[in-house]
Structure formats: C-alpha cells, structure tokens
Design goal:
By secondary structure, this protein is an all-alpha fold. Helix content is 64%, strand content 0%. The chain has a domain at 31-71. The chain is elongated, with a radius of gyration of 29 Å. It starts with 17 loop residues before the first helix and ends with a helix.
Length: 74
C-alpha cells in the first residue's frame, strides 16, 4: 500500500493595485532604525578591518617611522 502525497495547491495572489501597494509599502515605521543599524554594522566592520591592518608589523613600522621623522628636529 503506497501513500501518494496530495499535490500542492497554488493559492492565487491578489492583484497588486496602487491602493494595495500604498497600504503594504507605505508604512515606513522603523526604516530609520534599520538604516542606522546597517550603518553601525558597516562602521564596526570597517573598524575591525582597521584593527587588523594596524596590528601588522609592517604598518606599525611605517607609522612609527613617520612619527619619528615628524618629531625629529634637524
């Protein structure tokens, strides 16, 4: 005895009219918060990249040499 699964029924979507689109997409509550969250995450990622770069010996040497030359009086 085999069990045949019933075929999936496709439910038709309602037509997207201007009025329905305005109702669905017109509310921008929380949009600014989401934008701030994305900008904050990008800033944190950039800061993390800078930390990784600044920890390398090569960059540290270049910056140290730059500061020494800037502070040296000839």
């Amino acid at each position: 005895m085999s069990v045949n699964p019933s075929p999936l029924r496709r439910i038709p979507l309602p037509t997207l009219t201007r009025r329905r689109a305005a109702h669905l997409f017109g509310d921008e509550t929380g949009a600014a918060t989401a934008e701030y969250a994305i900008a904050t995450m990008a800033a944190v990622a950039f800061a993390g990249l800078l930390v990784v770069i600044m920890r390398s010996d090569e960059v540290r040497g270049i910056l140290t040499d730059l500061v020494r030359r800037a502070l040296t009086v000839e």
